[in-house]
User: Which sequence fits this backbone?
């Protein structure tokens, strides 16, 4: 039996368990590569090889877990985000591609802060951040990531902006342990600092940029979520009260007192919440609404405001 045949059998099991055919084929192949410890190039070159001795047992266990709708990322323990492999566990939300939009806009906000700090705009646009980071006379822009989870946002921002000082908070000690591990593996010691607690616990600031992917699913909407999500991902990172806005409301309330003048607040929100989010920002003293940005599917996804 070849590896390709084994994967086809695994995909058939997943389809029988209710997964769409295309998803079942992709998931089975990813799980096979995980069991083998192969990258995509190796798989493409060797998928017709004979099944190794230990493969059937380990692959069967992985397929069985996926058939119960356990997310592939929890089975493999890894999810790629912004081109980097992040360790994930059931204590952390699985990073989504949509959240990369939040990172992109946060990076743009940091560019703005560099210009406000007196750097030549052309130098900023050239992206010479390693050189800038070596200048001890220039103040470092500061970033706070609220509810960091796996650390995907904080670690990515620190990696993309070596000159930035990045801090992250989370209410879950188990999630913080994962985030610290990701920071250590992907960046090295000390590049991101962490504190445990709700919102800005241990992180008074002021900050040039505050960013967050908070819980934003309404309690009543849990019945609409996929089994993969509601049955496995941490509810602490998903649900936010009757309207899904309880965490966002608190972040918007707290942000003005903890941002530098002209600093930026950016956060992700859910489908159908754009109007309420804009109203929250415009009704908050000390914040000026900037824009709401849609994701690649055209769904309003990220809110941006500045401190005045």
Assistant:
């Amino acid at each position: 039996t070849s590896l390709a045949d084994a994967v086809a059998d695994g995909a058939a099991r997943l389809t029988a368990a209710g997964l769409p055919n295309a998803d079942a084929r992709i998931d089975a192949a990813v799980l096979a590569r995980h069991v083998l410890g192969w990258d995509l190039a190796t798989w493409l070159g060797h998928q017709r090889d004979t099944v190794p001795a230990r493969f059937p047992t380990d692959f069967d266990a992985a397929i069985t877990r996926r058939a119960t709708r356990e997310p592939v990322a929890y089975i493999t323990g890894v999810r790629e985000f912004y081109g980097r492999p992040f360790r994930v566990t059931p204590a952390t939300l699985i990073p989504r591609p949509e959240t990369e939009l939040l990172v992109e806009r946060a990076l743009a906000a940091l560019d703005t802060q560099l210009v406000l700090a007196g750097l030549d705009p052309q130098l900023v646009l050239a992206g010479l951040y390693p050189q800038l980071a070596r200048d001890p006379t220039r103040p470092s822009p500061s970033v706070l990531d609220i509810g960091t989870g796996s650390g995907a946002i904080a670690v990515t921002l620190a990696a993309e902006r070596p000159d930035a000082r990045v801090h992250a908070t989370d209410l879950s000690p188990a999630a913080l342990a994962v985030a610290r591990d990701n920071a250590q593996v992907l960046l090295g010691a000390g590049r991101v600092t962490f504190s445990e607690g709700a919102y800005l616990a241990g992180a008074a600031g002021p900050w040039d940029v505050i960013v967050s992917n908070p819980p934003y699913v309404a309690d009543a909407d849990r019945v609409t979520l996929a089994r993969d999500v509601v049955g496995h991902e941490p509810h602490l990172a998903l649900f936010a009260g009757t309207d899904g806005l309880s965490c966002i409301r608190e972040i918007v309330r707290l942000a003005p007192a903890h941002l530098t003048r002209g600093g930026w607040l950016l956060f992700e929100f859910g489908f159908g919440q754009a109007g309420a989010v804009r109203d929250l920002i415009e009704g908050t003293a000390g914040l000026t609404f900037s824009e709401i940005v849609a994701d690649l599917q055209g769904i309003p996804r990220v809110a941006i405001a500045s401190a005045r």
